[in-house]
Amino acid sequence: MVSNFSSKNLYRNLFIGLSVFLGILMMYLSTDYGPLEDTRIHQDHGVRILNYFKGIDKKAALTPVDDQGNYYDVNKNLDSEEHGMNGFGGFFDLVSNFLHQFYPSSEIYAFKNFVNSIFGFLLFLFCGLIGKELRNWKLGVLTLIFVTLTPVMFGYSMNNPKDIPAAAFYIIVIFHNIKLLKELPAISLKRSFYLILNISLLINIRVIGLITIGYVVLGVFLWWLLENKKHNFTKIHKKDSLFLGSKVLAICVASYIAVSIFWPYAQTNPFKVPIEILIKMGEFRGFENLQLFEGVWKSSFDMPWYYAIKNLFIIMMPLHAFLGFFLIPILYFRTTKEQMLYVSMILFASVFPMLLVVVGKPNSHDGSRQFMFSVMPIVVLSAFSWYKLFGLIPKKNLVKVVFGLMILLMLEPLRFMIQYHPMQALYFSPIVGGVSGAYGNYEIDYYGVAVKPSLDWLDKNVGDSKNPPRVRLYYGSQMKIKSYLDRNPNLQYALSKRESSKWDYSIIMLAEGKYKRDLDVNWSPKNTVHEIKVDGISLCYIVKNDYKGDDYFLELQQNVANSPSANGFIDLGLVYFNKTEYVRSIEAFKMAINIDPSNSLAYNNICSAFNRLKMYEKAQEACEKAISLRPDFDLAKNNLLVSKNRISRSREENLTVKEYLNLSYNYYRLGFFKECIDTCEKLLEIDPDNVIAYNNICSSYNNLEDYENAIKACEKALEINPNYEVARNNLDSAKKKIGD
């Protein structure tokens, strides 16, 4: 008896010690992580929610569904973002912004990471506590270690403001549901409060958390069946059963209503909104993008049915947890019915969300991280399975061998977590060959995890407070670098277009391969000064700008004037291209073609320039010519794909007046007069009195020697603005030609 008591206290104290150590460690390490791709959009949403509760404005209560019943696309513009993000309750972002008011000197994203690490710690802690509830403190310790050694979850625990808080509340709800089942038929106010609190906050963060209300009902119902089956359903106490059911119903209703407490939009209709958003989330396209899965690029709406299952339970899962999955059946061997119920409820919490994904076919993107909450319950059962296996093995020596195997398997993710800190989230299971095996088959760093280590390298190696180098990031959210550079005196933030030369160092994410598929193949080594690697795979390039300046430009102009050559004009065209003077670059590339009609590179470069000018049909023609000259020209194939995609999308997009004018002007400069007229006519559909459009039509008809239509267009321009001298001059020119 004394021995058992001592053992119990030993593992209880060990659990407490490990938990305290883990919590402190995670909060300390959180400073090593940077914001991720969508952190900014959630942060701004949190500010709007806080402003709502302060009474500053009501933006957080705007409907995320437009007048046509469609979900707002948060990437379209600021107004759509402000509407669309209200489909999320945003509890984490509200809390982090509220707390930040008391620590204003802390950089907001660093502070959010600190708060994020606390939620990550709670996720691991309650997984361990579930292990304790399933058996004892010894299993609690093993479970705590098991879940901590899931590198993806550990890494995202520091800076993922959506998926980790959701996973934390999900596992806390499961814990309290298990406690509830153990305490039945009594339902205490304390347990009711904990369930209502955590279910409502989970739904606030991810509306799919509504399923946990069903877990409570299902668990109590199964318990009721087991209890009454003992007496073959002959001693059912209807009054007690109804009383129990009414308590459960009260918990469910209160959980549902409480969702609106911290969700401004839900306050507009607490009964309707959660269900409405759950249904509409299937249409949510805010994070729709191309996904690399099994070596094929597809839209996030076109993923195979097993996309989420493979990502969450195979690709990101370390072997010690993965092998434990196959041991789960032994949890139903030599056990009580009550224990089987607890195990089944936890297993159901992992399996049921995946069934919903398979049936519902939602927008599944970025490694299915929005369903990451379903991972930890089965990892808990994996730990329990190993634990029970040790008890079933009759020979102690064999137990030692199996235990040694488990430890050996656990060392693999531990090594990765230490060696590649703070990039634990980029872990890939040995089943798919690790990161090197995932390369070219799966997206590795869609979220920008490797950006922070890139910035750290730049600060250490090229940072200069007297003359800080300009650093840019072209792909994705600028906040991934801006939050770091704004508080670093040794580096300077540069916001620039891809072709701009106004930067010193550029961070190139491998994720840019979504739009530049040959990035890793055609990257110029001479410009790359450092690579952020995991398992030998480059995830981020740091490139030094080798722009040669105006002297080089003048030299090229002089060379092609004195000794024209195709290569000379291509070099000149590239300089114009980098200066964003795309029309002149096209003219230079055309000169190269005049000298060398079979120059596929010149045609490809013309395609790229046309794409920049939004002349996608012309771009398509140029790239098709390049490919006809060189069928294996992968870069031209990629540019052609961009052209075709943009042609398809442009049919659904409306340009602004300024964009139409720029497009018509560029068509005119390049001699595409019919296209200039067509573009201006589209402009006149949205701005019927635009005198510039009528003048451009007049000028184009003059060049086409269609003077009668030129006169009509210029007379219309002067009818709108009699003082428009440019149109008057074009009109005089057209009349003179007719007179001649």
Automatic annotation (TrEMBL):
TPR repeat ranges, renumbered to this chain: 566-599, 600-633, 657-690, 691-724
Keyword Signal: no
Keywords in alphabetical order: Membrane, Repeat, TPR repeat, Transmembrane, Transmembrane helix
PROSITE patterns: TPR, TPR_REGION
Name of the molecule in the record: TPR repeat-containing protein
Transmembrane regions: 12-30, 108-127, 139-158, 193-226, 246-266, 312-333, 339-359, 371-389, 401-418
Keyword presence, Membrane: yes
